[in-house]
Amino acid sequence: MQPANSKIIDYHSRHQPFFENVYRDWFTNHFGVPTEPIDDFVLTQPEKAILEMNGAILVATCEDQPAGFVALKKVDPSTFELTKMAVHPSHRGKGLGETLCRAALDRAEALGATRVILYSHNSLEAALHLYRKIGFTEVPLEKGLYSDFRCDTKMEHRIATRATVRGISPSPDDLKSGSNLDPADWEELRQLGHRMLDDMMNYLQTVRERPAWRPLPDGTVNALRQPLPQSPQDAQSVYEDFVTHVLPYNKNNIHPRFWSWVEGGGTPFGMLADMLASGMNPNLAIGDHAPVYVERQVLDWCKDIFGFPRDAGGALTSGASMANITALIVARNQIPDIKEKGLRAAAGQPLIYGSSETHNCVVKGAAVIGIGAGNFRQVPVDSDYRIRIDVLKEMIRDDRAAGDLPFCIVGNAGTVNTGAIDDLAALGEIARAEHLWFHVDGAFGAVPILLAEYDATLRCVASADSLSFDFHKWFYMNYEAGAILIRDAAAHRNAFSSPVSYLAAHERGLAGGPEPLSNFTMELSRGFRALKVWMLLKQNGIRKYEAQVRLNIRQAQYLAERVTELPELELMAPVPLNIVCYRYNPGGLDDKSLNALNKELLQRLQEQGIATPSYTVLNSRYTIRVAITNHRSTWKDFDTLIEASVRLGQQIHREKS
Ligand SMILES: Cc1ncc(COP(=O)(O)O)c(C=O)c1O
Question: pLDDT-based confidence at 170, cuts 50/70/90?
Fold first, then answer.
């Protein structure tokens, strides 16, 4: 902000003594030597040195008295040097320096500059701080213009965009290179890009040869805690930083023995698709362009896979969490007037029902959309971790009698803990009878609908009001890609469309084409995640996914069998899908000791790079949990896990006893 009572005016010859003396005093005080000839020329003959060369000198006045100044020396038609800035000692500390610099930048722009440079010295810390603050960055310093003792830093400020906006032609220098963020040397970046591609292909091809996980060394953690970069770094060395500090310490969900949480490993072709999407870089919110048609095509294929009608609504999302929240919002908006008036419009407390095994993102979603986490009614499960239908019915009846407003049932097609599939047919019937929205969270567990043997169990997802699922889990696609399908497209649209003039669809032109996808999600910025889904579904065909998913289910059954065969291992839950929960249990230990032992066992499995299962707690018992959405796992990988679990279990047990 400009200090009170100060003004910026143009230099007049009456300012000459002030201009000269203040700068000389400052220079001598700071560097301990007199000014150099290059300074003397500017200070004694400012007209000749600056003004007649189409430069400018700006003077800051306080109470109409000169208080400081800055000069803009023309270097070439598009470059000005900001020089001779000084503020009289009695006016320092009031922000005049910043005011002068900003005024000089504005003036430089008005004079046609696309670049302002300055020379300074690292002993002038406050000045350097100010220059950075207003957008100067360090650039390589050419020698010889000023003496080394007073000049070791060169900085520049690019104002090409502002100039272009005002219709001022860019200089030939800017057109050549470096005036925007594209490479100055395309060939050089192309070669680096080829190297990156080769490196990543090798990285993926050799993934099995590396440990399943490795902890980050302190040096790496420190290297990833650096201050904000101020000056440009060449792409090659930025890439070297990535290769050294980032790549080796991946989460490694690409590894054949990664079975944590529920995470897919992606594919090399998916990586390439992401590169293409990023290169095109479209925003899919609105507009008539091919990427929008690709997402619509993908959504139509999703409807075919899960048996939804082609006129259903839908959207790709970052994952199942966002898909679930999207469904909850649409479901909530079936309560009359709620979209306009908010929750006060509800005739009672709106309630959502789902089993106690429902994924936490649904509970979070209830909180986020204003229903309240506590109003997600957790229905108990049976011994197979499936929702108790009898208890659900009672809860709905009791809640209604108490004046509450049940509005939604969430069914699980594959719970995160054990892969349990709720009785979806029964849930659908209750929802219809009670006039409730029926949503299915099928994040990963809806995908086996591809398999004839799961048809009877999963067919009912097709009758849900909404279904969420992920491509990055059991379709093995690269992060991020999830989806929501909503049977009633109008209900879906009503929840998210919010007409404004700047987003109105047109009959023709870029704003023409199909209905904006932003009418169906909260996000106005939507990347081209649809491309990898489209390319991978085409590359593999749905039958390949069917075979791969079936293989994972068989691998889970194999693992469960091996666990059951071995007396020291204990299977902790049924295995209806692809999740196996087990623990090491040599006998004679209580649950508390077994919990500690198995937690230690899991950590050693991970730290020794053997395998990366995860964990959960079932009925207060800590269990090792293997979730198989991995297209790289072989049968032998599960033998490795079993062998290591027994060996490490014995070792820890020995150490503890
Ligand atoms: C059953 C279930 N629902 C929802 C989610 C959340 O999915 P996302 O991580 O894609 O948001 C998960 C994640 O594992 C899940 O297992």
Answer: low
How do the residues of the chain divide into helix, strand and coil, expressed in percent and rounded to 5?
Answer: 45, 20, 35
Using the mean position of ligand 1's atoms as its centre, give its distance from the Cα of residue 614 in Å: 15
Pocket of ligand 1 (CB under 6 A): 261-262, 319-321, 359, 361, 414, 416, 441, 443-444, 470, 482
Q: Which of 51-60, 153-162, 168-177 has the highest mean predicted lDDT (pLDDT)?
A: 51-60
Amino acid residing at 514: P
Integer Cα distance of 431 and 87 in angstroms: 76
Answer whether 509's CB lies under 8 Å from 288's CB: yes
Ligand 1, from 359, 466, 577: best to mutate by most atoms within 8 Å of Cβ? 359
Please state whether 112 falls in left (phi above 0), alpha (psi between -120 and 50) or beta.
left
**Whole-number Å distance between alpha carbons of 178 and 171:** 12
Atom of ligand 1 at shortest range from CA of 321: 11
Say how many Å lie between the CA of residue 511 and the centre of ligand 1.
Answer: 34
Q: What is the pLDDT of residues 180-193, one digit of tens each?
A: 999 999 999 999 99
| pLDDT value, residue 160 | 57
- Return d(Cα 634, Cα 593) in angstroms, integer: 32
Most ligand 1 atoms within 8 A of CB, residue of 253, 316, 318, 416 to mutate: 416
Adjacent-strand bridge partners of 405:
350
Average pLDDT of the residues of the chain? 94
Ligand 1 atom nearest residue 414's Cα: 1
Residue nearest to atom 16 of ligand 1 (CA): 416
Sheet architecture: strand order including 115-120: 6-10, 56-62, 65-76, 79-87, 115-120, 153-158, 137-139
**C-alpha of 445 from chain center:** 25
Q: Which two tokens stand for residue 529?
A: 């995640």
